[in-house]
Amino acid sequence: MSSTPSAAVVAPGSFLTLHYRLAGPAGDIINTFGAKPATLSLGTGELSPAMELRLIGLAEGAHTTFELPPGEAFGERNPEMQQWVARALLAQMGDPDEQYAVGDVVQFPTPDGSGSYAGAVIELGETAVRFDFNHPLAGQPVSFEVQLIGVL
Predict the structure, then answer these.
(1) What is the DSSP string of 27-77?
(2) Residue of 54, 20, 22 whose CA lies nearest to 39
(3) What's the first-to-final CA gap in the chain, in angstroms?
(4) What pLDDT is recorded for position 97?
(5) Residue of 76, 77, 73, 41 whose CA lies nearest to 144
(6) FRET pair for 141, CA 20 to 30 Å: which of 6, 13, 66, 95?
(7) What's the pTM value of the predicted model, to 2 decimals?
(8) What whole-number distance in Å separates Cα of residue 105 and Cα of residue 94?
């Protein structure tokens, strides 16, 4: 008598191959459907803790959508995350002739130089540019669609 192996189930620390879509009220922010699937490990900060919790217990092959209430996926908007950056500093860090426009997303190096983070231009001044470093979906309801391809 042979038993059919059961599908792998997502657990803390699982390594996943999946397609996913994150959307807010204005539409998709990330969508891997129709492209190369994503690979990630739970617990490493690649997804927010609220999204990871919803994956726990899902079986390989599952395709579902979760609706997260405002602020749960990426926290509330923090006004302190909106900051002016001197144009002189921007010129030192990148192209001195760069022209910024409201809505542009700019990558900044982390202080230790090992990674980067993004800020969206929200206001232009003569000597500085104001950036919003909040996640684009902070404080908003989020639709999180996932199709689990593989679970290790």
Answers:
(1) EEEEE-TTSPPEEEETTSSSS-HHHHHHHTTPBTT-EEEEEEPTTTTT---
(2) 20
(3) 26
(4) 85
(5) 73
(6) 13
(7) 0.78
(8) 14
Q: Is 58 exposed, middle or buried (0-12, 13-18, 19+ CB in 10 A)?
A: buried
pLDDT digits (tens, 9 = 90+) for 70-125: 999 999 999 999 999 999 999 998 888 889 999 999 999 888 888 888 999 999 99
Residue type, 91: A
Place of tokens 């129709």: 34
Of 29, 40, 53, residue with least CA distance to 140: 29
**Predicted pLDDT of residue 111:** 86
Residues 6+ apart with CB under 8 A from 28: 21, 22
CB contact at 8 A, 73 and 48: yes
| Element at 92 (helix H, strand E) | helix 87-93
Distance CA 117, CA 55 (A): 25
C-alpha 152/C-alpha 138 separation (Å) is 30
CA distance 94 to 72: 34
* Residue 130 identity (one-letter amino acid): R
